Amino acid sequence: MDLGIRGKNALVCAASKGLGKGCALSLAREGANVTILARGREALDQAAAEIRGATGAAVKAVAGDITTAEGRAAALAACPQPDILVNNAGGPPPGDFRNWSREDWIKAVNDNMLTPIELIKATVDGMIARKFGRIVNITSNSVKAPIEELGLSNAARSGLTGFVAGLARKTVRHNVTINNLLPGQFATDRLKSNLAARAKSLGQPFEQERREQAPAHLHLHRLRERALERLFVCRARQLVLAEPAGSPVRAVTLSRDFYSASGARDLAMHVKEHRFTTAQIGEWLRALALDLLGFEFEDPSVPAAYRQRFPRDAAATSLENWGRLEDEHPEIFAGMYQFWVAKPA
Q: Do 86 and 232 fall into the same domain?
């Protein structure tokens, strides 16, 4: 699949290893001209050589600290007009908030919130002028599910997420998208150092902590596969946004799922979506002798609207009532939801 980025200029931060390197490699495979930046010259040069050898792409390597003004200036001097910007930086150390100083908080905010904002500020207007731009911020799933010992990271990355949510709505009309990646556990040096710190604080062996924090159902996905998946989602969004205003395909942009990576992936990959009415669901439940326990929505306003409309059904288990509510408000089932059933006692 052609992602449409051949010949584009990409700037990838903290790319000598881990997720940054995985993104740089995937971009190079797609024909982008890649500039990578990291603090350690030896690891950086090794990564650049590996990417060149694997892809044949042109790769510039810039040694510098992206969290400093000097590092950002060096990166932008090497890649002054990036079409693709991957913001990435090492996260703050884990610990107990009682032990963190004001300087610790300021450094966390500078490295993981202000630095990507400064890079966006330096590049987004050029992207808008060229009518193409892809900005990706690698943050953490702790934005949605805060991790106790990563309080510095939780706070700084959440601030970046809030800023980007507002800006992205303004830039998308110019074919400039801004997305946050919220990765979970990957087998990177960062994850290993966090696990080692946690194991030390608990007084237990590292391997025991690793097993406990990575249960069997939680697979550590290969970096390249996940990076390609994210690029596919970005390309799918680009194709939809390029459709004429009256195209029925653009109807998916009305869904909130279109603006999240996982939701857009589902929209792009589900070739056929089956739709069922509440009446049909009721027929199946009766045929299977199951009782409806209720619906669960991401949007809390939906069950609130039901309770206001049908105050006598406190359990909110009447599919007939849910059908009426949907007739009055067709959008209530447009997002993600679950419904729970059980066999009668």
A: yes
CATH number of the domain residue 22 falls in: 3.40.50.720
pLDDT at 56: 92
**Are 38 and 152 found together in one domain?**
yes
Question: Is there a domain that residue 112 lies in?
Answer: yes
Helix (H, G, I), strand (E, B) or coil at 312: coil
What is the Cα–Cα distance from 157 to 139, expressed in whole angstroms? 6
Walking along the chain (345 residues) 10 residues at a time, the average pLDDT comes out as: 87 92 94 95 94 93 95 96 94 87 94 96 97 93 79 90 91 93 67 68 69 47 52 72 79 72 64 73 91 87 91 92 90 78 86
Report CA 322 to chain centroid distance, whole Å.
32
182: domain range? 9-186+221-269
Number of domains in the chain: 2
- Asked if residue 330 and residue 255 are part of one domain, the reply reads no
Structure tokens at 313: 């059904």
Helix runs in 59-218, H state only: 69-78, 102-109, 115-130, 151-171, 189-202, 206-213
Buried b / exposed e along 31-67 (16+ C-beta atoms within 10 A): bbbbbbbbbeeeebeebbeebeeebebebebbbbbbb
Q: Specify the pLDDT at position 203.
A: 77
Residue 266 is predicted with a pLDDT of: 65
Q: What is the pLDDT of residue 219?
A: 42
Residue type at 170?
K
Long-range CB pairs of 213-217 (<8 Å, 24+ gap) are: 213/185, 214/185
